[in-house]
Design brief:
575 residues; alpha+beta; 6-stranded mixed β-sheet; 36 strands
Length: 575
Amino acid sequence: MKKIYIASALVALLAAATSCDKYDIYPEQYGKVLMIKDAGERSVQIYATEVAAPYYVSVMKNGHTPEDPAQATLKVLNDAEFGEYKELYYGSKDFQGLAPLKPEFYYLADVDTAAAENNTINHTFATADDRYFGAYVVFNAQAISDWLADLENRARDNNKNKNPQEWQAANDTLNNYTFVAPIGLYSVNKNDSINADSRYLMLTPVVENPVVNVNVSNDAVFLVDQTRSLLKDEESAYRNDSIEPQIIFSIPCPNPYGFQIKYNNNPDTDIKRFNDHHTDMVLTKLPLKGADGGANFTTGRLAATIEFPVGVTEVRLPFKFARKRIDYNDMEHNYVTSVQLSKFNWPDKNTPTKIKNSLKLPQSELTWKDGNGVEQKYDGYTFFVGYRVVEEPMDLDEGCVLGANDPELTEGSFGALFDDDLSTFYHSAWSANSLKERQAPYGSYIDFEMPTKEPINAVAIKFTARVHSNPHSPKLVSLFYSNEDNEAERNANWKEICIEKEVPGVGKNQAASGQVTWLGGIKNDSEWIKAPEPFRYLRMSVVKNNLDESLYSIGSAAAGYWNLAELRMYGTVIE
């Protein structure tokens, strides 16, 4: 049998090749070269609850003429073959640091049949396109876990004097040996070569206890945004539907026995603890009933358990609440209830104790301070789920900009206002030539077409100041509206919404880098800037910047300007 030695980088290149490639990098005498992809000594993470934990092995055919037929045998090494491996890589076939796993702990299975085949799989690469075949090394994780637990028990210090020989043997086994499932690749025909660097796979199983995962981040708070403008329509399907938070519980392996996760619901205590310790977000208890007396929870109170059927790896929290109980004007509060995972329940009385002890709940990272100011940890895994009312901005982009009277486009762009990138910006004119376009009452303006299907009659605008270099935010803004599709008629008949309205929070002499300010507001109907009638076109006129510089017509000298990193516009209809 021929051997061929190839540099590691070249092996990686070959492993990534596609089935239609032809390899001129091999000498011509190596027509077909067989190899195990990702060969070598590897650790395999398996879970203690699994009886059959499969690890996929891929065998590839490369070479100078890989389209030719070939035959390969993938097998579990016997003692003599394992000795050859140790002699090749460790210098002695009697090397004691590497040992084979007990045969009852694993087997080799064909991918197609998923059945054991006497720990040997023969494959014929019959056609030009036949370049790969797969197999599974299937570990009995429960058996391996029990074996390791027994060794650890025997190696405990309290057994040292009771049975010193047993104690020493267990310690030696745990500390001095690496146990592997030894897999090797062999050719059947003398004209088929094996890549010597990729013919052995030594798999060491690492047994882990599976932990239930919950997809809740943001300091364990899961808030579902509810759109205010959609909630306002009392008759809509959206308003009369339910919110179902997509909180997913998952385990990293199939479970052979059905189980339940029990949880508690104690929002009064949990929310108080959270608010005492987290100043960046304030939570409010979600009431069981709405203002009209109807139940907030459409299925009554939270269920007491989360059901995990046999074989299932993901389930959703069985929880939903009614949108029709939401006050759409309430944009101040984050309404939540708490969920505290407490323990597992095993309805199947035949579930082995080993399984029950192996499956774990996540550990809560939440903390709170007790009455003495000492930081404590929550009992069990605790998180909060609920909703908040938000107003979504209109979907503005550069295509909604009809034009401007004085853009300094060499300094920025219209699109920069809507790109969620604070490093880009829009800049109005600062040179004398551009300033000729300014005149009262419009100053420096941008015209927009509203991207809503129906006209709106109220707006609010959120500004984000340019970052780092010379932020010049709008301080006084005038708004005008129109419904004229013809540009000339529109420009001749802009109607007033507000004149020289101050943007709160913009300092007289400076605007902070990245500062966020609002023209109008969206938290209740009184904050919106309302027009006398619905409209489709809006002119936003900046007439004074944060330096108190007027942006009306100014002589021939270079003068005031404004710039922004981002602009968000909100629109609604207020009766």
